[in-house]
Target: Ionic transporter y4hA
Amino acid sequence: MRHVLSRLPLALPLWSLLAPLAALGALAWPGTEGWVLLPIALCLGAAVLAAVHHAEVVAHRVGEPYGSLVLAVAVTVIEVALIVSLMLAGGDGASTLARDTVFSAIMIVCNGVVGLCILAGGLKHRVLAFRVEGTSPTLAVLAALSTLTLVLPTFTTSSPGPTFARPQLMFAGVVSLVLYGAFVFVQAWRHRDYFLPVATEEGDEPAHATPPSAAVAWAALALLMVCLVGVVGLAKRLAPPMEALVQSMGAPASLVGVMVALLVLLPETLAAVHAALRNRLQTSLNLALGSGLASIGLTIPAVAVLSLFLPNPLLLGLPPTGIVLLVLSILVGALTLGSGRATVLQGAVHLVLFAVFLFLAVVP
Model:
């Protein structure tokens, strides 16, 4: 044990070991008013940075695309747990919470994360390369899942409103699991080479570094989980002050879900931008699109089962504005990811769409 601990600081600096503990301590700290908000916010930021570091250690050990898959699935599992806990707690927004959270996650990763990565990487490297054979099929699965689960309920007639009847909801949950399982099988085993970063001089430098030992990687994975729990827990604690802020602004209640989703997805965003700056856009796209798929593929089955025990119907169908933004995002994403090359122009387009989404979330 002493030998293992002596090796951990080589790949895991002291701050990355203390940040998860600080996040857990902040979770136990009483109250979220006044000056207490500042240390909670600082602990949240430290947990996000530590999560990114530990995810990169794990990714370096297992290689791509497994590293991206680990972070995407870990964040989404805890996101689903947060959604389920809030839905069980009830409230006025419980019926639309799953829809608003999943839709926000899709808009964040497909426009915000992708746009920021392409813009940042394009400014540094001019032209970024990625593998069309990996990104285009992933976007196709994301388009199919998002349409079947977020658009189709608006037009079905077996139940009133933008809802699925119970058999339809169960079928949608099974379909989501099947498609996500097929994606994971293709990404991790069948066609793993489609999701590996394109070889570049700048991007290959980290790959030649000595991978961390198995003990360090396992320690980083455990600390990653602790960090993600801290991120989600602190985001949940900060939700009431954010809700009060939203109410004071006169904005819709769904904006709280957007703000929480932004906080929860911070680790993936920072990891994706870091990869893009190293000219590894494929890793960034694996993180972004994989997170969107995991969000739908795991959330819809979970809420489908949960709906059996909820008194209120589960509203999944998007309003017309959301449908337009979703279709436009998928169309622009298909054009961006269809050439294998990206520049700052594509990044600017995606960021503008993300800005429109945020603006309409405040002023619907």
